[in-house]
């Protein structure tokens, strides 16, 4: 174990730098070595050797992880590597240049014929591309997936925006791995074309390690309910298939030695066929080591074997240490090997052993799941107890056989497929039904790194108590786990600071207001992607949704599971398009909507969905107020006496006083509505103004700005949007009045932290590059 910890610290420090956390952990490791009594010198020597070797490997990887290319237009020749993704009118693929550098490429099709032509592109093809290089975008919202870091850890530094029309490909000329990927892609496409989409996606996931073709709602249900690992090719899958193949080879007449030799040859190919993800590599490598030792009639301890694979993997691919799949796969493997003897001695029945394995795996992965996904569902434990045998004994063998039969037999006689067809649909219906309810979901928010360490210390103590079987160990274990898990949810209820966050939802609006001590959470609008009428061939598999992909992750990261007031300012899709998605993951107590005719189809759909969900819907107008201690809110518009027909001019205008700072949120209010507002409230002023209609020329009149006299203005607009928002003339008006301007198209999400002494501004994009504009 000393060598494993030293290696992790070495790689971590070599790549990310030796910060305080790494130095502290290294000191703890040294203290542990010094406590080894008779083996102090040996322990210190081992720790130092492994730490130095892996530090140098990390430093070397970091020094060589650079690009020789420059931003801008580029015409290149390269080889397509990996499996190209065609999704409606867009596509993504990776390109390997002759010098070895790889690019992440994307493009858009202008016609269905062009899409059809690209559907025949395969890994290994040599092509000439025309396009431009850009840096991968940094996350523009807090707690968002960092795509730039993700590519960097694969030694990819550029996004290549290619022109599909000006791309010309020759016959396959890549490596054997590229050609093997081409065969894999052909197999997946054949399964998709022959079988029902739900079953085909499952077969591909379990045999070829690609979950892309599973319906997004079903995949989300698997992930939220904690059974997503059953769709990944892992040690359980590889072990079962290896054992089954061994049995069949012996039954058809091969000797035990020849069967093992054949499997040793086949395992690396299967790892590539199944996607070569870290869990697949780990499982295939472990099976390979076990078979090799059996063939050579040598005994090897499981811990020694998996440690060798772990260290070799890190030496070959240092950045894999930061991949969640790698972390979870090896963490579960190490923990189950260390617990194997206790499981065997303490659990006598099959059910008992299954429960022990499930609980240990769930417990050890809990901190990492919470850190990356901000939530965990207690129902995952019973679901795993049911689904692991179901998948292991039925779905996995049937999927593998269906994929194998598909190579040689016509669809009509593929019996395993028909078996899957009869069971998969009902099972998925049950999962999606359970996923509709919050049940026992635990959402503590984004956890600090130190708390992850504390949680693992508690888990190790729980494991030791279980192994020692001290009296009432389970009661002590529950207390030891519940105290930190409950305690970490309490700080927001004691925090006297308020926050107002302007999220980057592209060309739309969405704001989250959190009052001190979590007295109330307001969400003002949800953003929404406006999609114009599209031909069927342009439709994409997984449509981006601002509610699902931006607002919900932000709320989960803040530990928010209940919205007290959802205020939808008006019925335009860029303000309410993400509202329905909230119902799947959040409890919304009250929805506030402006009085007036509800005529648009999307308005009716959203309000009907919330009514059916049991949310209180209040049609409001000027005069509505709320108070939470010193924090006050008031609706200033619309007013039913205006008889306004323009939905923008009927926007809800919300005035708020939060920790002594005055705010005005104006939706898409135009100049006409602004004049009415000044007539009704002639002395109105504010400290912070949410500029109306994304900074368009139809809003923010000079009269309005002169009366309000805000110090700070917020503009929510999409980067490079087609409308040219915010308008240059509006920006000039704001700059002439020396107002601090914060824009989502330049700064990403902007968070205002209020402590009663002013405003502290935090942006998702680095401030040293942006600053107020």
Please describe what this structure looks like:
The model has no long low-confidence stretch (mean pLDDT 87). 49% of the residues lie in helices and 17% in strands. By secondary structure, it is an alpha/beta fold. The chain is globular and about 95 Å long.
Structure at a glance:
The protein has 773 residues and is of the alpha/beta class. The radius of gyration is 29 Å and the shape is globular.
Question: What are the SSEs and their pairings?
Answer:
Elements: H1 2-16, H2 20-34, H3 40-64, E1 72-87, E2 90-97, E3 102-108, H4 112-118, E4 125-134, H5 147-152, E5 156-162, E6 168-172, H6 176-194, H7 197-208, H8 216-224, H9 235-251, H10 256-273, H11 278-296, H12 302-316, H13 324-346, H14 350-373, E7 376-377, H15 380-408, H16 415-435, E8 441-442, H17 449-468, H18 473-487, H19 491-494, E9 498-502, E10 511-514, E11 521-524, H20 546-557, E12 562-568, H21 573-576, H22 579-585, E13 587-594, H23 601-612, E14 616-620, E15 625-628, E16 631-637, E17 653-658, E18 661-665, H24 671-680, E19 688-690, H25 702-708, E20 712-715, H26 728-736, E21 740-743, H27 744-747, E22 750-754, E23 759-763
Parallel strand pairs: 3-5, 11-12, 12-13, 13-14, 18-19, 19-20, 20-21
Antiparallel strand pairs: 1-2, 1-4, 2-3, 4-5, 4-6, 7-8, 9-10, 9-22, 10-11, 15-16, 16-17, 17-18, 22-23
């Amino acid at each position: 174990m000393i060598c494993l910890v030293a290696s992790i610290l070495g790689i971590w420090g070599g790549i990310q730098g030796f910060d305080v956390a790494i130095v502290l952990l290294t000191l703890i490791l040294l203290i542990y070595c010094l406590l080894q009594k008779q083996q102090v010198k040996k322990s210190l020597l081992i720790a130092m050797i492994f730490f130095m070797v892996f530090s140098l490997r990390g430093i070397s990887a970091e020094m060589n992880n650079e690009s020789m290319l420059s931003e801008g237009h580029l015409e290149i020749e390269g080889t397509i590597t990996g499996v190209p993704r065609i999704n409606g009118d867009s596509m993504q693929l990776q390109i390997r240049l002759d010098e070895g550098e790889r690019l992440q490429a994307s493009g858009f099709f202008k016609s269905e014929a062009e899409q059809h032509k690209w559907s025949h592109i395969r890994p290994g093809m040599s092509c000439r591309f025309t396009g431009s290089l850009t840096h991968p975008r940094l996350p523009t919202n807090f707690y968002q997936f960092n795509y730039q870091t993700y590519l960097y850890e694969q030694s990819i530094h550029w996004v290549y925006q290619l022109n599909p029309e000006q791309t010309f490909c020759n016959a396959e000329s890549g490596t054997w791995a590229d050609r093997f990927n081409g065969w894999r892609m052909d197999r997946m496409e054949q399964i998709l074309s022959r079988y029902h989409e739900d079953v085909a996606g499952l077969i591909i996931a379990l045999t070829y390690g690609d979950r892309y073709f599973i319906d997004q709602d079903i995949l989300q249900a698997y992930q939220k309910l904690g059974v997503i690992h059953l769709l990944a090719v892992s040690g359980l899958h590889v072990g079962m298939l290896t054992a089954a193949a061994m049995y069949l080879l012996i039954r058809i007449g091969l000797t035990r030695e020849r069967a093992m030799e054949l499997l040793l040859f086949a395992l690396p190919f299967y790892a590539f066929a199944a996607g070569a993800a870290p869990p697949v590599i780990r499982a295939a490598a472990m099976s390979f080591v076990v078979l090799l030792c059996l063939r050579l009639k040598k005994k090897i301890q499981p811990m020694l074997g998996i440690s060798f694979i772990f260290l070799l993997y890190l030496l070959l691919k240092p950045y894999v240490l930061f991949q969640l799949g790698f972390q979870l796969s090896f963490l579960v493997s190490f923990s189950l090997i260390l617990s194997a003897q206790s499981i065997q001695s303490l659990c006598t029945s099959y059910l008992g052993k299954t429960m022990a394995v499930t609980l240990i795996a769930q417990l050890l992965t809990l901190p990492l799941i919470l850190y990356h996904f901000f939530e965990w569902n207690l129902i995952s434990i019973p679901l795993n107890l049911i689904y692991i045998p179901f998948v292991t004994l039925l779905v996995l063998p049937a999927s593998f056989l269906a994929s194998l039969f598909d190579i040689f037999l016509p669809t009509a006689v593929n019996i395993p497929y028909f078996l899957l067809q009869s069971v998969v649909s009902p099972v998925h219906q049950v999962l999606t039904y359970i996923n509709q309810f919050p049940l026992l979901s635990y959402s503590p928010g984004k956890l600090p790194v130190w708390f992850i360490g504390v949680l693992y210390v508690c888990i190790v103590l729980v494991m030791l108590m279980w192994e020692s079987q001290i009296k009432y160990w389970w009661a002590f274990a529950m207390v030891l786990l519940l105290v930190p898990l409950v305690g970490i949810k309490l700080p927001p209820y004691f925090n006297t600071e308020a926050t107002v966050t302007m999220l980057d939802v592209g060309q739309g609006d969405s704001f989250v207001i959190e009052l001190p001590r979590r007295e109330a959470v307001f969400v003002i609008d949800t953003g929404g992607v406006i999609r114009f009428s599209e031909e069927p061939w342009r439709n994409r598999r997984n449509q981006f949704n601002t509610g699902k992909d931006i607002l919900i992750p932000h709320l989960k990261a803040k530990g928010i599971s209940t919205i007290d007031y959802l205020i939808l300012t008006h019925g335009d899709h860029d303000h309410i398009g993400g509202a329905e998605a909230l119902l799947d993951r959040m409890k919304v107590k009250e929805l506030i909507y402006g009085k007036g005719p509800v005529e648009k189809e999307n308005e009716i759909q959203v309000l009907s969905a919330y009514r059916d969900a049991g949310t209180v819907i209040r049609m409001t107008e000027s005069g509505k107020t709320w108070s939470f201690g010193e924090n006050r809110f008031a609706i200033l518009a619309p007013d039913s006496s205006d008889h306004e027909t323009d939905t923008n001019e009927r926007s809800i205008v919300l005035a708020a006083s939060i920790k002594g700072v005055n705010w005005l949120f104006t939706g898409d209010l135009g100049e006409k509505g602004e004049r009415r507002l000044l007539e009704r409230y002639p002395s109105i002023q504010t400290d912070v103004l949410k500029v109306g209609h994304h900074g368009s020329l139809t809003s923010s009149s000079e009269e309005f700005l002169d009366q309000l006299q805000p110090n700070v203005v917020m503009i929510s607009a999409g980067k490079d949007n087609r409308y040219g928002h915010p308008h240059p003339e509006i920006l000039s008006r704001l700059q002439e009045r020396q107002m601090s301007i914060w824009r989502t198209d330049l700064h990403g999400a902007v968070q205002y932290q209020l402590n009663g002494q002013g405003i502290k501004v935090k942006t998702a994009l680095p401030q040293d590059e942006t600053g107020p504009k």
